[in-house]
């Protein structure tokens, strides 16, 4: 099985020993993206702004993979606080159109770097 690393200077570097994305065949599996601004290495305040940045990071990686949000078939949204679901969902809805990708969303005990939102996607090319 051939694997190709997907990365972009417009998305933050991995915080550990993993790739931002891996392409195999016609699928791309992207690691969860926190709302880290790649230019500053910092996260904005609040779940809404972090969701916007997370999706911007995903968009940069999609571009690097030759894809768009229309190619996304599955997403997982991790929230530090499920009370942020509705607000994050509004941001999320600005990037996806019908037919929407399958999605899971849930609260977790904690996210890396004190993040409030992390989003991962699976892409079909």
Give your account of this protein's structure.
The chain is an alpha+beta fold and 125 residues long. It has one domain (4-124): 60s Ribosomal Protein L30, Chain: A, CATH 3.30.1330.40. It is 22% helix and 28% strand. The chain contains 2 helices and 7 strands, in the order E-E-E-E-H-E-H-E-E. It has helices at residues 47-64, 85-93; strands at residues 4-6, 21-24, 27-30, 33-34, 72-79, 102-107, 117-124. Strands 1, 2, 3, 4, 5, 6 and 7 form a 7-stranded mixed beta sheet that branches.
Salient structural properties:
125 residues; alpha+beta; seven-stranded mixed beta sheet; 28% strand; globular
User: Briefly, what CATH class?
Assistant: Alpha Beta
Please report the distance between the alpha carbons of the first and last residues: 17 Å
The total strand number stands at 7
Helix content: 10-25%
